[in-house]
Structures are given as structure tokens and as C-alpha cells.
Automatic annotation (TrEMBL):
Regions that span the bilayer: 46-64, 84-102, 114-133, 139-159, 171-196, 202-220, 232-251, 257-281, 301-325, 337-356, 368-391, 397-419, 440-460, 472-493
InterPro entries: MFS, MFS_dom, MFS_trans_sf
Species name: Microterricola viridarii
Keywords, in A-Z order: Membrane, Transmembrane, Transmembrane helix
Membrane-related topology note: Multi-pass membrane protein
Lineage: Bacteria, Bacillati, Actinomycetota, Actinomycetes, Micrococcales
GO MF assignments: transmembrane transporter activity
Protein name per Swiss-Prot or TrEMBL: Major Facilitator Superfamily protein
Domain called Major facilitator superfamily (MFS) profile: residue spans: 48-498
A Pfam family it matches: MFS_1
Cell compartments where the protein resides: Cell membrane
Length: 507
């Protein structure tokens, strides 16, 4: 059975009787008897939002979990530095691949069910990593942890299914902001554990947090009843995984392998070629993993392209600012701070994203999501313009990071709303998953580009070599340019959405 029509919003008189209880086209009910009983239990909206927001913070924490360990990983694992970097690369690849696939599975088989599976994967990955003392099992654990990032778009889509539209905006803004909150707040926690305790404690902590998230979702989040018909597009999932793997490997390993090396060119070219074939296949198959026709609607396409710019600009601050703070002062460039101090300087960025979620939601409700996105990306561009002039004091980096957090808070709150306003209700999880992938692509590109700029613009004084002032200025200028491009893309997003009868967010 397809679910093309938008159901009455929760809280409306028509929605008092749970949907999805009727049998599907094959004569089987959507829900089991146990699921029906659970659905009749009324859970407070605040409890649902708390469970999903907590889950978002936990899974985003996984992305920065090992950052404080990176300088020590080669020694701890008895491997080379390039090999140790697979602990990070594997997580990025896993997150980018699993997120859209998990969204599609959620639309088909229930968002809550897939969310629980992803959280279980994070718990399993944490346990494997906690017992690891060599590279391979640690990478396997990090792959499973990276899969959890798909919980954020699933959580946003669940909110759309279960909350009244009057309460939806603020909740979406909060859960969307967790992508930055978990990383920013978790970074100093990771730094303290890595510095003063056994590094395996990082993974025991992540496992406990993921298990708590699993319990909260299982206990508080209602069973998903809004599902689409059809079957899972396994060939499409494999094709997308291969395409993203090739592209992301070329981007993340370009600095190490050489941008013109056969490996980089081979993986990049293969990834793009597979992606082109994948798009043609998605257009022709009856049950695509991602509906390309929906994804290329003007609002969806431009929002996703803007997401790349926002992801780039956001992650640039996570690369350049800690480097500026931690670089020794001997060359007259760095600020000579510890990893813990640098983490604390970045933490307000995530806290601001959380604090601004309510304001961003009110602005979106009053003026539209496009205005909120435009304001956010403009603040980001201005923040990096200021960074070109303010880079000689610790409080300068704190100011820039906080301003970027303000901008990202508004932008992240707006993007899911723009997406859900332009896609069918049966494709919210898959479409939000694709939007998250675009953010990840932007973040990955920022890591490669800013890393390359800082690595190739150096200054040497005596025996000390560090990134130069010009290197940091170029990094900030590129990030500001990404913000300006995001502004241009946002200006082309339609002011008024086209009226789709099956839009996920009704007028």
C-alpha cells in the first residue's frame, strides 16, 4: 500500500485513531498486535523530542570521538600515520553510505525500527572498539559507529510523523542542531578521557550512551505507521555505496596519495562514473532507493547544494581553528594552547546551535525556512570574513567559532523543513538522509581542502615549522567563499513552495 496522501496531523480529530492498522496490498497488517498496543499508549511530545535529540547528540559525538587520539594512534596501534587515519576515514564512509540507505529502509519498514537497528550497531561497534588493540578491529568498530549518524535524519522524519505541525518546527530545529552539538560538546570530554584515562574508556562511554539512546527510543518513541509501499532497492544501495566510496576515498585520501596519483584519479573517476550509471538506473527502476525526480526539484536540489556549502563552512572551523589554537607560538603564528583548551574554545559553537534552535524555529514559522537558511549562511560568511582580521588572540577564535555556530544553527534548522516541504510524505526519511549525505560531502571536502591549504603554506623559524599566517587566511577566505556561494544558491530557492498534493509538510 502506498502512502501518498498526507495524513491528518497528530492532534487533529482525524488522527485520533492510529493509522497503518489496515492490511497492506498482500493482506498482511502493517503492525503486529504488540505494536498496536504500544501505539495506543500516549507519550508526551516533550519525551519523544528528548529521546530523539539525545540520540542525535550521541551519534554525532561518534564523529569527533577519536579526534584527541589522532596524534597517538600510530603509536597505540603500532601502525603508520596514514594507516591510522583509516579510523577516521572509515567512519566518514560508513556515515555517508548508511545514512541514505537507512532513510529508505525507514520509509519502507518503519523509521523507529531502523533507528533502533542503527543504535544497536553503534553499541556493537563501541564494544568491538573497546576491546581492540590493533587497527582492523578498531576500524570495524568505527564503521559500525559511523552508521549511527543516520539516526538524525530518521529522527527528524519521525518528528514529522508524530508531532502536530504547530510544535514541529522547534523540534526539527533542535534535533537537526544535534549534528553540531554532539561533536562540539563531546570534543572536550574526549580530550579529558584521552589525556587522563585509558583510551579504551572513550568507547565504553560511547557504548553506554548509545545503549541509553536505544532504551529511550524503544520506550518513548511511537511505532512508525507512515510507510511507503514497494521493495528495497538493493542494486541501488550497492551502486550508491560504490559511488560514494570512490568519491569520498579520492577526496579524503587525496592529500596522502597525491591528487594526480593513479589511486586518487582511479577512485574518483570510478566513483563519478558509477554515480552517473546509478542515476540512470534510479530513473528507470520502479522502486528507486532515492527518487531522482523528487531530488532534482528546484527546492530540494538547491537546498542540498547549499547543504554542501554549510557542511564545508562548518567543518572548516573544526579543522582550522583547533590548528590555529594548538600551533606552537615559536613562528609567531599559533596560539600555543592545549587540545583541551582548543576543545573548550569550540564547545560554545555547539551550545549556541542548541540555544538558537527555538529562535530559528520561530523565524522559520514567521518568515519561512528560506529566510532562516539565508540568514544562517550569511552569518557564516561574515564570521569567516572577520576571521581574516581576528586570528591573533584566543578570544578571536572563540568569537569566530561562536558566530559560525549561530549561522549553522539557523541553517540546520531550515534545511529539513525546506526538504520536507517539497517531497512526498512517504519519502521524508530518504530525502532527509540524502540531505545529510550532502552535509557530509561538504565536511569531507573541507577536511581535504583546508588540510591541503595548511599543509602547503608553511613557515619555518629555526627547527620549528608550522602553517603560515597566509595558510590560515586562505583557509578562512575559502570558507567565506563557500558561504557566499551558499547565499547565491539560497537566493534561487523559490520563495513559495510548489503545491504538491503529497508534500510531507502541508500548507
Amino acid at each position: 500500500m502506498t502512502r501518498d496522501a498526507f495524513p491528518a496531523a497528530p492532534g487533529d480529530s482525524e488522527s485520533l485513531e492510529p493509522k497503518g492498522l489496515e492490511p497492506d496490498a498482500g493482506g498482511q497488517p502493517w503492525l503486529s498486535e504488540a505494536e498496536r498496543r504500544a501505539l495506543r499508549k500516549r507519550t508526551p511530545d516533550s519525551a519523544i523530542v528528548f529521546a530523539l535529540a539525545f540520540t542525535g547528540i550521541v551519534v554525532s559525538f561518534m564523529m569527533t570521538l577519536v579526534t584527541p587520539l589522532l596524534p597517538e594512534l600510530p603509536h597505540l596501534l603500532h601502525v603508520s600515520t596514514p594507516d591510522a587515519m583509516w579510523v577516521v576515514t572509515a567512519t566518514l564512509l560508513s556515515a555517508a553510505i548508511i545514512t541514505p540507505i537507512g532513510g529508505s529502509l525507514g520509509d519502507l519498514y518503519g523509521k523507529r525500527r531502523i533507528l533502533l537497528i542503527l543504535l544497536a550497531a553503534v553499541v556493537l561497534g563501541s564494544v568491538i572498539a573497546a576491546f581492540s588493540s590493533t587497527l582492523i578491529p578498531l576500524v570495524i568498530g568505527r564503521v559500525l559507529q559511523g552508521a549511527g549518524l543516520g539516526a538524525i535524519p530518521l529522527g527528524i522524519s519521525i518528528l514529522r510523523d508524530v508531532l502536530h505541525r504547530d510544535r514541529l518546527g522547534k523540534a526539527v530545529a533542535l534535533v537537526s542542531a544535534t549534528l553540531g552539538i554532539g561533536g562540539a560538546v563531546g570534543l572536550p570530554v574526549s580530550a579529558v578521557i584521552a589525556q587522563y584515562l585509558d583510551w579504551h574508556m572513550l568507547f565504553w562511554l560511547s557504548g553506554v550512551l548509545a545503549a541509553a539512546g536505544f532504551v529511550l527510543v524503544y520506550t518513548l518513541v511511537p511505532v512508525s505507521t507512515l510507510r511507503t509501499g514497494g521493495r528495497f532497492d538493493a542494486p541501488g544501495a550497492i551502486g550508491l555505496a560504490l559511488a560514494l566510496s570512490g568519491i569520498l576515498l579520492a577526496v579524503t585520501k587525496g592529500n596522502e596519495w597525491g591528487w594526480l596519483s593513479p589511486l586518487t584519479l582511479g577512485f574518483g573517476t570510478a566513483g563519478v562514473a558509477i554515480l552517473a550509471v546509478w542515476v540512470l538506473y534510479q530513473l528507470r527502476t520502479r522502486h528507486p532507493l532515492i527518487d531522482i525526480r523528487v531530488a532534482t526539484r528546484r527546492t530540494v536540489l538547491l537546498t542540498n547544494l547549499t547543504s554542501v556549502m554549510v557542511g564545508f563552512a562548518f567543518f572548516s572551523s573544526a579543522v582550522a581553528l583547533p590548528m590555529l589554537l594548538e600551533t606552537p607560538t615559536g613562528t609567531g603564528v599559533g596560539l600555543g594552547q592545549s587540545m583541551l583548551v582548543a576543545s573548550l574554545c569550540l564547545m560554545p559553537s555547539g551550545l549556541v546551535m542548541w540555544a538558537m534552535s527555538g529562535t530559528a524555529a520561530r523565524l522559520t514559522a514567521a518568515r519561512g525556512a528560506r529566510v532562516s537558511l539565508l540568514l544562517g549562511i550569511t552569518i557564516i560568511a561574515v564570521a569567516y570574513a572577520l576571521a581574516l582580521l581576528l586570528m591573533t588572540e584566543v578570544w578571536h577564535t572563540l568569537l569566530v567559532a561562536t558566530a559560525v555556530g549561530f549561522g549553522v544553527g539557523f541553517a540546520y534548522a531550515a534545511m529539513p523543513t525546506l526538504i520536507m516541504g517539497a517531497v512526498p510524505s512517504s519519502e521524508t526519511a530518504a530525502s532527509n538522509g540524502l540531505n545529510s549525505v550532502m552535509r557530509t560531502l561538504g565536511s569531507t571536502a573541507a577536511s581535504a581542502v583546508i588540510g591541503l591549504v595548511l599543509a602547503t603554506n608553511l613557515v619555518t623559524v629555526g627547527d620549528l615549522t608550522t602553517p603560515s599566517t597566509l595558510g590560515f587566511q586562505l583557509s578562512f577566505a575559502i570558507s567565506a567563499a563557500a558561504g557566499v556561494l551558499g547565499i547565491v544558491l539560497t537566493l534561487f530557492i523559490p520563495r513559495r513552495q510548489a503545491q504538491y498534493g503529497a508534500a510531507a509538510l502541508p500548507e
